[in-house]
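Protein in question kept in full:
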Amino acid sequence: EVQLQASGGGLVHFGGSLRLSCAASGFAFSSYDMAWLRQGPGEGVDWVAAINSRGGITAYADSVKGRFTISRDNAKNTVYLQMNSLKPEDSSVYYCAAVPGRSALATVAQEYDYWGQGTQVTVSS
């Protein structure tokens, strides 16, 4: 059974930082590209960042570029999202997602096969 369990969310002030983690199990983690997605209140799911299976290639949505960093530890089957300079508009439920490794990173949420349970991030102004 595929499991993706996100953690690390919480309440933070404008300009603060959080580090999200996602523990994966039930599939060959090191062969999968991983991503973080988010969904704000009353909004659709947006793709935030992605990392390829080996961790050498990353991509970011324009709205988070320069503030967020995605990384992974294949020995621990875990993907991370370091979020700095947080803004109220970053408030969302954040999900990690997985898709078998490709030649190019998927940058649309619906391209990912597996989604995990989310973790709430709230940024106060």
Q: What stands out?
A: The longest strand covers residues 92-100.
